[in-house]
Fold:
Amino acid sequence: GKSTTTMSRSDVARAVQQADALENQGDLDGALAVLSRAIDISPDEPRLWARRGFLLRSRQRWKEAIEDFTTALQLTPSAPTALFLRGTSFAMLGELDRAVTDLEECVRLQPDAADAYWQLGTIHSFRGDLERTIATYEKAFALNPSEYSGLEEELVTLRKRQATNR
Structure:
C-alpha cells in the first residue's frame, strides 16, 4: 500500500476497537500500547488521545491522563466527555480550581451531564460552599434522580443547614 503519515478513519476506528477488546480482556498495557502506536502514526486524531487518557485515568495515572485529555481538547475544544474526565482527574490531584473550570465548561456544552453537576457539588461541598453545593446537587438530582440515591436526603440536610445559617 501507499505510505502515508496518518491513518485512515477506518484504521483509527480499528485501533480503538482493538484497544477496547484488549481492555475488556483485562490487558490494559496492550490497549495502551495499541493506542500509543496509533498516536505515533496519527497524532492529530483526538479520539486516540481521549481513549488513551481514559485508560491512563482508569490506572490512576492522573497527570498522564490530563496530558492526553489536554491534547484531545486542543484538537477538539468542545468535547464534554474529555472535559469531564480531565476535570475529575484534576480533582483527584487536588487541583480543584482547574477541576471546576473543566466541569463547568462540560455542563455548559452538555447541560444534561448529571455526573458533572454531581462532581461539582462534591467539590463545592468539600470547599464548604453551601449555596453552590445545593445548586449543583439539585441539578444532578433533577437530571438523574435514580442515579444518586441518598442525594434527596442530603439536600434536605443541606437546605436545613442553609436556613439556620441565614
